[in-house]
Backbone:
């Protein structure tokens, strides 16, 4: 019996769901985790029916400090070996910095930051024992860009941090057979913007800048399995990342405001 699994956080919608389905289509057993048990149950059953792999789920809110331990304990108690870890869960706070309280910000940083660290820390020892492991960190093109007004003060900075965390994982563990891939999508059509109260801003983004979630998921899985350090989908997004890294910030802001719904106004 194959007890190896791919664990995907935030896997009930959007890129996370599409990544789970993409991995299942390639024969990987799937472990789903998110907050909505009804959705997790339905998706797990559908994955089994569609792809003939094993699929299980554990309900957890990564905004809670004990969630990484709960997920890890679920895996170990069932003898599930996580050889692929997809840190995908995320959202944005669509408020000004002075309008959010510390508790809200701490929960946000746990989901997008410290929860990612905690989960990765728990599963790396087993990967080291097996001398093999793939870790995906779903970051954002925002990791390269100046912070923007409509996405909250913390979104871009925490994504930049996640990219550096991925770099550190590769530096320390690639020689041991473990690779980390920073996946940095641009504007992707998912439930993310509606859930974050930002659909109006997304609607203003030109269609040529938007990517389909399934296309992004397939490319992300390809990049992870090949052990790429960073993957940015599409030539336009690659160009944007390059320009953000090489042009003066003031020029990047002017260009972005004209293309991306006034994010810097």
Residues:
């Amino acid at each position: 019996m194959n007890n190896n699994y791919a664990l995907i956080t935030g896997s009930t919608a959007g890129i996370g769901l599409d990544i789970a389905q993409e991995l299942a289509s390639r024969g990987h057993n799937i472990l789903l985790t998110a907050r909505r048990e009804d959705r997790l149950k339905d998706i797990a059953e559908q994955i089994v029916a569609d792809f003939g792999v094993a699929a299980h789920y554990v309900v957890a809110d990564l905004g809670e400090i004990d969630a990484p331990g709960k997920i890890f304990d679920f895996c170990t108690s069932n003898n599930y070996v996580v050889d692929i870890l997809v840190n995908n869960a995320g959202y944005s706070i669509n408020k000004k910095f002075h309008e959010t309280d510390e508790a809200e910000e701490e929960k946000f940083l746990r989901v997008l930051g410290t929860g990612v660290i905690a989960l990765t820390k728990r599963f790396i020892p087993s990967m080291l024992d097996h001398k093999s492991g793939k870790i995906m960190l779903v970051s954002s093109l925002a990791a390269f860009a100046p912070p923007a007004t409509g996405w909250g003060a913390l979104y871009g900075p925490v994504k930049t941090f996640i990219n550096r965390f991925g770099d550190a994982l590769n530096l320390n563990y690639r020689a041991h057979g473990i690779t980390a891939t920073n996946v940095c999508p641009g504007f992707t059509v998912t439930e993310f913007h509606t859930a974050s109260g930002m659909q109006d801003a997304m609607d203003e983004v030109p269609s040529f800048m938007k990517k389909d979630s399934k296309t992004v998921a397939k490319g992300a899985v390809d990049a992870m399995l090949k052990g790429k350090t960073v993957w940015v989908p599409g030539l336009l997004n690659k160009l944007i990342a390059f320009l953000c890294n090489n042009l003066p910030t003031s020029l990047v802001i002017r260009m972005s405001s004209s293309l991306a719904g006034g994010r810097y106004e």
Summary: The chain has one domain: 4-259. Residues 4-259 form a domain with the Rossmann fold fold (CATH 3.40.50.720). The longest helix spans residues 102-130. The first strand starts at residue 4 and ends at 9.
